[in-house]
TrEMBL record:
InterPro entries: NAD(P)-bd_dom_sf, Sc_DH/Rdtase_CS, SDR_fam. This is Uncharacterized protein. Belongs to the short-chain dehydrogenases/reductases (SDR) family. SUPFAM superfamilies: NAD(P)-binding Rossmann-fold domains. It comes from Rubroshorea leprosula.
Length: 272
């Protein structure tokens, strides 16, 4: 496959890590980073075969795969240290790894084994990525950008999926605190919050086909005539990772086609 990265672009010369980069939003973002001239994209995931395939399709000169389970801090630390050692620095961390979970838990029915697993990925893993990326950026004096994947559910209550909703609220707390603490080093920390889109993870969790998931969510957005896809979220991440957003930090960029502003969140049963 031809090299996707032009000589110039919004991310020209940048070194980036994308967790959860083997599929869905992470994969779309990796491909867009390459299109915008990133010097090296490190895809981190536990889906080894998929991750290797994505990296190979982008091209070895611009993209590599690194096995990393974000619930294990030593693996996150190794991911960041390996990236800095091999490529000189880390400019962008897209902390995207997360799960929806299979639970429809309400407060009265919380299964804490499922709760703990979800939090270990969505919250603890996210915090580990911000911690070690931030440390590397401070040490190398890089005015970097950290972007976390949150959700429209991070700003609202939900009738079900209590543990998921709580975990995404925690992501916003992490982003807001980290932006205050890392701003003195010139490091920006933001989040991107999509609403439902038909990623492989979402379809599997809901037990629905792509067309079914898209139909559920498209009917509940006030902005008509468009469909929310992984590429739309990737566009937002590129903006937050690039110098175009050089004065934006501590911000949650919602990408939902007017879903939340349209007042639909309260009524929806399927909200990732």
């Amino acid at each position: 496959m031809a090299d996707l990265a032009p000589s110039k672009g919004k991310l020209a010369g940048k070194v980036a890590i994308i967790t959860g980069g083997a599929s869905g939003i992470g994969e779309a973002t990796a491909r867009l980073f390459a299109n915008h001239g990133a010097r090296m994209i490190v895809i981190a995931d536990i889906q080894d075969q998929l991750g290797l395939q994505v990296a190979a399709s982008i091209g070895a000169q611009n993209c590599i795969y690194f096995h990393c389970d974000v619930t294990k801090e030593d693996e996150v630390k190794a991911l960041v240290e390996s990236t800095v050692r091999d490529h000189g620095q880390l400019d962008i961390m897209f902390s995207n790894a997360g799960i929806l979970g299979k639970s429809e838990q309400t407060v009265l029915d919380l299964d804490f084994s499922a709760f703990d697993r979800l939090f270990s990925i969505n919250v603890r893993g996210m915090a580990a990525c911000v911690k070690h990326a931030g440390r590397a950026m401070v040490e190398k004096r890089v005015r970097g950008s950290i972007v976390c994947t949150a959700s429209v559910g991070a700003s609202h209550g939900m009738k079900r999926r209590t543990d998921y909703c709580m975990s995404k609220h925690a992501v916003l707390g992490l982003v807001r605190s980290a932006s205050l603490q890392l701003g003195m080093h010139g490091i920006r920390v933001n989040s991107v919050s999509p609403n439902g889109l038909a990623t492989p993870m979402t379809c599997a969790a809901l037990g629905m086909a792509v067309e079914e998931v898209e139909k559920v969510y498209e009917g509940q957005r006030c902005l008509k005539g468009v469909s929310l896809r992984e590429g739309n979220v990737a566009d937002a991440v590129v903006f937050l990772a690039s110098d175009e957003s050089s004065l934006i930090t501590g911000h949650d960029l919602v990408v939902d086609g007017g879903f939340a502003s349209g007042g639909n969140l309260e009524r929806v049963k399927l909200i990732p």
